[in-house]
Amino acid sequence: MKLVNSVLGVFAAVALLSCDQFKVTKTENGDRLQIHEEGDSKKVGKEGDILTFDLVIKSSIDSVFKDTYKEGQPFKVPLQKGQFKGSFENALFHIAEGDSTTVLVSADSLFTKIQQPLPPGVTKGSDLKFTVKMRKIQTMKEFEKEMNDKKVNEGKFVDEYAAKNLKNPIKTADGIQYSENKIGTGATPVAGDSVIVNYIGKFMEGGKPFDQSAPNEPFTFVVGSGAVIPGWDKALLTMKKGGKSTFVIPSKLAYGEQGAGGVIPPNTSLVFEIELIDIRK
Known about the structure:
The chain is α+β, with helices and mostly antiparallel strands.
């Protein structure tokens, strides 16, 4: 009997936990949150603070629209008020550092506000599910210090990464470090040449790809035309047709202090694996 009672107690605890995970808390401002896990910190953000969080956005039937875990880089955004009641932005004011929370947002309200039709897979009257893992909450002053420290120490981070991950790394006068994984036997491109390449772009931290050429669809561009980041133009000049190299490109030759589109943070060195398939004069 004691064993039966013990088993029943475990099932009851699991059931209670499951109920808590799906319970929706509604704030006085209309924000709807499902709290899955509470962090040790009770620190919540104030308007103007910088939030760093992972985010998965799903439809009501769990179609995935965004997943920063797969993209390899969390969001880093200023905390500001949303444009409508029950918005995702407003809910962020209630998520503490370390919390894992799903925010339910009316699809009708969101897409009406941004003046766009409902996308495929999102039905009228349904909710979008924004699941947040809050990594860090910083004041603007703390964030600026972190960015400055990252900029000052970027060269050291590149040196350490290259020493650990590249075979016999070569360093250019511009600060690019690279290794030749396969030395090509053809010509070397010059400015004005059209090159055809396969590539994968990764972050040094974590090594997850943030961009790559499509399968069976190599990328073509003209060297020196400004079609790519400056580091790519310089990198291609070290290669021969048929070669494969791995490059670590410092931020000054990538996306600099501005970063890019919420995908590339400011002052971020990038790793590219490039295969030079062909050169066309």
